[in-house]
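Section 4.2 – Deliverable D4.2 (structural model, holo form)

The reporting period included a commitment to supply a predicted holo structure for the target in complex with adenosine monophosphate. Inputs used:
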Amino acid sequence: MRIVLLGAPGSGKGTQAKLLVEKLNIPHVSTGDLFRAAIAAKTPLGLAAKEVMDKGDLVADEITLGILKERITQNDAVNGFILDGFPRNLIQSEMLEDLLLELNMSLDHALLIQVDPDEVVARIAKRAEIEGRTDDTEEVVRNRLNVYKEQTAPVGDFYKEKNIVTEILGKGSIEDVQERIQAVLRF
Ligand code: AMP
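Output (structure tokens):
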């Protein structure tokens, strides 16, 4: 099964993806995690990405597509994957379409997790305390939310036109949201 998780920063995409991995036995592919791993390994890609990420802006599309392609063409992704954080704009949505066509694959679901903006800010503040992400500071979060609104929100409409979007209410406990997702995926 090939799934795209959509939703604002802090909507719980990563948390829900990790729970789905246990059920579906397919990898969680988070472009943010891939960039953070590159930063930790101090690769040239990581160094270039860090500067952009620390401002809350988007890393260049071609670079992001490159790390995504490298990941989803690994053996553990032959039966599917859960994308988290990609696509982040309409250009990336088109790039993903082309890549999947080239790989003879298609998406089964785009799940859009809906959370109130106030709730998102509160959740990120909590995550900042726990994880200490350098892009979870108030000013950077504000920019990330703007980037989401302007560039990423239209991605939902892109997949709505393809009739593969389901909106998931992001309210309640982690388990509540996971149950709603599993009801959509029917397992
Ligand atoms: P995330 O962990 O998904 O919140 O991503 C953290 C940061 O990584 C983002 O704010 C961007 O700077 C960068 N990033 C992650 N995914 C993408 C993407 N698909 N395109 C461009 N930049 C990305």
